[in-house]
User: What shape does this take?
Amino acid sequence: MAGLKRYLPVLACALCAFLAPPLLAATKTAYLLTQLTMSAYYALASLGLCALMGYAGQISLGQAGFFAIGGYASSFISKVDLSPFASGGFVKFLGFSGLLVRGADAYGKAVLSISPWVACLCAVLLAAGIAAFIGTPVLRLKGHYLAMATLGFGIIIERIVRGTQGLGGADGLSGVPPLPILPGLAVTGERAARAANFTIAWLVLALGLLALVNLVGSRAGRALRALRDGEEAAGATGIDTSRYKLNVFVIGAVYAAVAGVLLTHYNGSIGPGEANFAKSVRYVAIVAVGGMANLSGTLVAGLVLNFLSLRGVFGRFDDAVFGIILVLVMVFAPAGKERGLQVFRRRKGAGG
Amino acid sequence: MSILEVSGLSRSFGGLRAVDGVGFDAEPNRVTAVIGPNGAGKTTLFNLIAGSLAPDSGRVVFDGSDITGLKPYRVARKGIARTFQAIRLSERMTALENVMLGRHVRSRAGFPSGMLAAPWTRGEERSIREEAMKAIELLGIADYRDRETGGLPFGIQRSVELARAIASEPRLLLLDEPASGLNIRETRALAGLIALIRARGITILVVEHDMSLVMDVSDEIVVLNFGRKIAQGNPRDIQANREVIDIYLGEEDA
Assistant: This one.
């Protein structure tokens, strides 16, 4: 009945992935591809938060923390030079399994590093593990207390990455290797791979969206919406609310981590700014503008606002703009903050 | 053989003994009512059985297994459904979706299969929908099924809540003051629904204020006052019980 209409945004994303590069090339605006690629990854992180905040009603001001965990962990692991340990058993085992890459550093010295794929996987698993670990105690909190606890988590992550020498301190990590996907295709910022990377990013975004569209319409999705609207009643229908909250918290973290991993390999670098509190506010603002329990709204808001921000439209007031947007939504959104902007809702359909 | 055995159940709040050593059995396929004046401990007793509150002492045995102090979602999984005194529906979900929630305990698809829209969940999803529709039709609210419940009339919301409860095919249905907020006509309709649900072989335990409803639908009545059980019997015995009359007359004099 509601049927296939809800898959339209997924289809639109997938079509854009292939149609936009030739279109932009034809109009001589291919330089926009870089920002559009980055916007897609930020939008992916916002979608994860939309599931958590919009559908399950659990606010998180720590989304940037998970993004940074993904990006930093993947950079760090894929940059570690294992050549001093080349004779060690574990390193040999990795070599036999084809999980090592030989390369050279900036000075031409040979280095032996772990395959970016292993790094990427470890990074996402690390984010999921941390989410599961902190989620258990933190998700017992509600409302303001949950907001404060997740905010604290975000700040801790930011302080850790900023203060750790091995993570580059205030400079962050750079020289992050490309993430090869197929022969001749890698997640990288090289100019020649610009169009291909746009396609990769938007396809990943389409897949991420597809999974969440499926989820919110499923048995688990109904349970999430039920617990958002009242935990006691949800519990009385047999829903293990703590487990459901934890699951969706981990899913939100995984979305942020995947986005962080891919964007970091795309940019070749990551800095502590990605873990900044202002970035977390930005994700929340995007979900709020999108209409909270509205995946397509979040998608559009995430793409448009990040694109404008990356193009420098907001100038020096970048973070302030997102703060103001959040305040405006909270004050003026009809039917309170849950409904978000009705404008988006009507036009983009699919609510919760 | 009783389906629900409550024995020596007690719970205090501060110095107040809200429920004090209450015990009774509920027979299968019967409607058992718990009545009593305001503050008698009815709702506390109800919450102790449903798992919303943990008792200080005493036992609740359902169908031979001890469910004392189990969390509400575990109680639900044992086959006990409930409604709330102040209706609790997901206001932003349609009536049908709310009732589909009732099938949660009878279905399995989790997060991974949900995110992948795995083919094997399709049959389950269809049966969730079909069973929910059956409950909706049984309660005569099919016209409202695609409406968000937040905007529905109170009586209809109560029916949606009942449909959600019976969609789970419970063996025991707990009704917490189901007539509260309903007008006389709606209350009469409710009595009909309770009879209908009972006829489907579902045991019912109802906590209620409305005397006419209780006398109408109950097979057995437990009377509480100040947290203690003061009488138990069929409606006719209870109506003739001196102590019960005193309590209620006393209340009405006041």
Summary: Chain A has one domain: 3-79+115-348.
